[in-house]
Fold each of these.
Amino acid sequence: MYSKGFRPLSIATVVALASALALVFFYAPNDADQGFVQKIFYVHVPMAIVALGGWVAGGLMAIKHLRSGDRSWDVRSYVAIHLSIILGVGVLVTGAIWARASWGHWWVWDEPVLVSFLIVFLLYCVYYPLRFSIEDPERQARYSSVFAITAGAFVPLNFIAVRLAESFTHPRVLSQTGGNLPGEMRLTFLVSLAAMTLLFVTLWKLELASKNASAQLKRLRTKLNARLAA
Amino acid sequence: MPALPLDEAGKYVAGAYVVFFTLIVIYVAIIGSKIARIERELEELNEEVGQGPSIDDGPEVRPPDQMAGLEAPRG
Amino acid sequence: MIRAARAILVKDLRLELRTKESVPAMTLFTVTVYVLFHFGLDRDTLEGSLASGVLWVTLLLAAVVGVARLFAAEREQGGIDGLLLAPVDRTALFVAKAAALFLFLCAVEIVALPAFALLLLGPDLLEPLPRLLPILLLANAGLAAVGALVAALATATRAPELIMPLLLLPLLVPVLIGAAEASEPLLRDDPVADRLGRWLGLLTLYDVVFVLLSVAVFDYLLED
């Protein structure tokens, strides 16, 4: 039952999103260096963190799938990865907008998080062609799970590698993704992060409920057809 | 690069948030259309189940008494 | 498991010695790409970060060529089903294939490095060579482990030649970063081992993680 507890969850999501927006535009002060443009940070960074978390979670669900053989874990893994890829598009686009507004270029190599994210995103884009070019459903689930685990382990490794590389060529321009934010900004950021996470979980459950209903419908139909034919 | 003036900066910030909301709305719309399809199929199935017994009475749908009568042992 | 792995490895090596498919192709590919870089960059000599970058990107691409053929023998002769019917430990298969790829890469580098020194490298290669060796070995290990894993993943798809490079190259970015950054200060006129430990550490971490992961996960692949 994927839609259990859905209403309180979606209400919480709406409340969190509204609060986050209010905080961003009415409470958080303007950044001294970047001015108003810095507000993009409150949508861009939480999206990135949630997307990365979603990918890693997809890998963990894939482990559960392989160990238990229960294919519902593979479906959960697929939806988590799929949602994170959509968020990933958002991350790259908002990142580009931010780069353009801050430094005048649509892409910069200075931000190791963004660069690392691009590599991970390119990797996960291969998930769809990999998955959908395997016809046997059981095999498809198994191989997708192996991919999800491999890619999930890759996320932190890649981040470390890129961070090490960039720190020597480009000094960290933005320390804001770290922890040294002034109090009001930190609160706003945390609320935005919570809102993004709730949104992710809500949409994840929504898509799972839809997939579940669709699969049950298919089974019902085959059962009905068999009975009618007999 | 010095901070952009508010009117220019506003466009970029608005753009970023618009991207975010557009993605969500598109996603919800796609799920919505999937659910619409599920509803339609459920309606179809309901129709078929409603008509079923009157069209598709198979040999197994028979009151037990008749069977007992047929199976009277031969002497 | 070791015995089974060694048996498969010996078979693969014998096959390669007989048919001479992968290693000469990979080597020729590498040298050709050096020539391409000469024209593409319009440079006679390279040093420092440019040399390191060209060297490692080319080796990475050569590894892709090698991975493409890794399970080819099994696929073509229908042998992979034969292998799987026998109770072969999947881990043994992984170890054998990764070891084979590792050895192929070492063989390619024995020719490719002198070729690079001859064609493109400005500074001397012999002097920093002892410090380049651990970089090469650790990088090869990473390339081999991930290459074998991706090769197995791709065999199930309808278009393995397309999926395999797309999967492999992003996964190899940390290897590229570690190897190129480590090699860069060594390929200068006055070679120094600058922060070498850090990059070797990164490569080692990568190797450990992906070897362990591949061993754990390989059982679920190639199962029919």
Note: Residues 171-179 of chain A have pLDDT under 50 and may be disordered.
Amino acid sequence: MEQLLFNPVAFITALFLMQGPADTLRFNPAVLIASLYVFALAAFLGYQVISRVPPLLHTPLMSATNAISGISLIGSLVIAGSRYREHQVLAEVLGCLAVTSAMINVTGGFLITDRMLKMFRKKEAAKAEEKK
Amino acid sequence: MTDAQYFLEGTYLIASCLFVLGLKSLSHPDTARRGMILAAAGMAAAVFGTLFHPDIHSYLFIVIGLVVGSAIGIPMAMVPMTAMPQRTALSHAFGALAASMVGIAEYVIHGGAMGGIKMGALGLEVMLGSLTVTGSLIAAAKLQEVMRGTPIMFKGQQILNMGLFIAMIGSFTAWLMHPGVPVYFYTMAACAFLFGVLLVIPIGAADMPVVMSLLNSYAGLSSAATGFVLGNNVLIIAGTLDGFSGFILSILMCRAMNRSMTNVLFGGFGAPLTADTTVSGSMREVGLDDVAVQLAYANQVVFVPGYGMATAQAQHAVRELGNLLEERGVSVKYAIHPVAGRMPGHMNVLLAEANVPYSSLYEMEQINPELPSTDVAVVIGANDVVNPDARDNPKSLIAGMPIIEVDKAKSVVVLKRGKGKGFSGLENPLFFKPVTGMLYGDAKASLTNLTQAVQKV
């Protein structure tokens, strides 16, 4: 046990080898590796893309990434709509809560980002808006 | 794979690409809006595709969730811009809530039968998600001033936090070893909820830009962990982008205060301090007409807004004064410090709302070289970000923090509500310098009066 906790390699190997009762649900190592690649590349891409966002747009950036991470909605949808052998009601209630909160971020996030970005005007456009 | 699954994966791929494009378009205000519409289209495609997921049998709870979510989300998009920080904090809470609910539901459905890696991701998802939910709610309460904004500290706080953290990690590890025992899982979730509260209460409202960014990052990472649990790439991509965005912002904010993350999180900045600065001299109060004449005959005027502008709702009054000056041929610029306000970019959004074109908004590094040739610098409700002690006094608590060097301008006018100290409780030597004139009163009223006075000049 102690050896597992202080040796990361042993810990990760142990995680890999842990047997769950239902084999189909276990993580397929190939899928895991692919997921890690996706994670690493997305992290790199995120760093590159986001460091180019000027401080001017940091508030819209925050609401935009918030809206985008509302993509957890797609996970929630499946949970709220599936049929299970047991715990049907609990899963549906949790799923419904998750759909609701993710949807709040999706609609609210994209709308307020657009509302904010609409306000960043060039000089001439700002003047024209003024005269209205 | 069936045709339906190919279709589903196709929509996810499209969504991932459009999200990246959308964020890339945020590198310039002219392209930003179109890019975000693309990202929204990507989201719509992914959600639409998921509705045809082969596992979905009943649409009742889906429809309820979508309708209730929109009914809450749309009004939340209509809040005034001054309420942006608390709105954003709330949306971090909702994002994290969704992730932790998915995590708990997955555990309820599959129990311990998921295999080690999935369980690890699931645990991380629920931990990060839960502590972000309560942490963000506390942050929102502080920003909305439902709760005291100053740090809340008590004896043994650090030890309690540490103990709670260890308990959380401990039950996580125990659960990984014995996945079939739900008690470990729920203890972990409960510890995380409590830890979120304790993490944010000792942090002052002035440090909120860092906390907001950090919570943004946690919410994103818990979404990414959801992606690992569900084996879904678009979730991993979107969550990672969100997580990294928050992470980069929090680093930028810390740098703009010259403080480390640990110092922000555990330092309890803004608590009553044994101040170290001794200031000599007295503050010089100036009259309205005096300032109006200075402004009217200046070549260049720089406005430096701070959180005080937001609380006084003075952004429109600033713009009116700025426009009037521009009509008289004065060059008007707005200098924005990275941590001015309560969240990253807060001041930019407020001024943009008031129709200030973005070409007039200057970053700290751009404006500092111009300040020596500026005739009048007008400080509106900002304090620490213009405190020359940060530069001159190595003993100051904010020593080393980059500032907007208004004291180098030929003349400085500070709009301030009263003679009290700033948010951090630090004395600001700027107010005692001979170039500085103080104009007391509500910022909005002062600016409106100034506009009238300039018209008469």
Note: The radius of gyration of chain A is 22 Å.
Amino acid sequence: MPHIDLPQGLPGITSGFAFRPETAKPMRELAHILLHEPNSLTPGERELIATYVSSRNDCYFCQTSHGAAAASHLGDASVVKQVKTDFTQAPISEKLKRLLVIAGKVQQGGKHVTTEDVEAARQQGATDREIHDTVLIAAAFSMYNRYVDGLATWQPQEESMYAQMGEQLASKGYRTPSIQPSAAN
Amino acid sequence: MPHIKLPPGLQGIRGPMAFRPETAKPLNELAEILLHAPNALAPGERELIATYVSYLNDCYFCQTVHGAIAAAHLDNDEDLVRRVKADFRHADISAKLKALLVIAGKVQRGGKHVTAGDVDEARKAGATDIEIHDTVLIAAAFCMYNRYVDGLATWQPQDENLYRERGKKTAKEGYVTMSREYLPQPELETQGA
């Protein structure tokens, strides 16, 4: 049961967003820019970073919904699983592997990122902007994950709901709710 | 030295914010709503929560600048800010704020650490649902801001006076207004033009 009286029938972060629309607005906007807007990193790559960080933070709702969004972008659910269990063996670019190392360090704490981590990403072609966005995606999911679990939100274990949410997030982005209160009941 | 080439001369979060103004906008808006906009919790209380979490995350820039903003809201009581960081249970703050700081500390470690008992304690001390919500989100948001600032190895000069002055100004003006000091400003658009 959630720690506070959140609107019923809304899963995960959508209940916090409905409870406090004022803070939902910039939080949605941030996710939209980081994950959905055009970028030299593809939306699928950025969703994989978000999924990986959420998996390390053990946030079921975030890793499942963003994993579904990544799978929708990439047309492949197995790579999402591989990235979570051992990204070094996953069929992704060397650049993305280096960025995932940085994201994993940020998840532990900002100071864990070393000059060598950044240098290794650069050697695989990562730009300053891509390194910046990786750090901010990992930092932002250190927020979203804590928000979702810190309020003990309702997180149904229902694969079809997440698959549908993933399709919606992948096509429409984050500015508008992916689940309408009426549809969730 | 920062990990990427950030605009020079900007301390802490200002460097990456100026580097990427698109994301700076919602980041500042979120801080504005959580810390500066009217709320049942006083701005000084909310800044103490932000300072405490930034201290736990060992982020020098964030704990110092938000500590200075907190002090500016609290009659320049810098000593109180120090005591909240060192041992808030014995600081001269309300029982409600102490219970909320317990929740914030749990969120800093990870969302699942917050227990129904922690929330119950806060409620018994008079905390409302929105105050508990905002405490969780302030703590979560500073787990982001702190990682952003340190994850890019931003420039964080150890100059107490700089933070003190900025704290006073930010306490008064808020985050969105202050961001105009370092973000490129869009051309003024005329309504209906």
Note: Chain B has a mean pLDDT of 95.
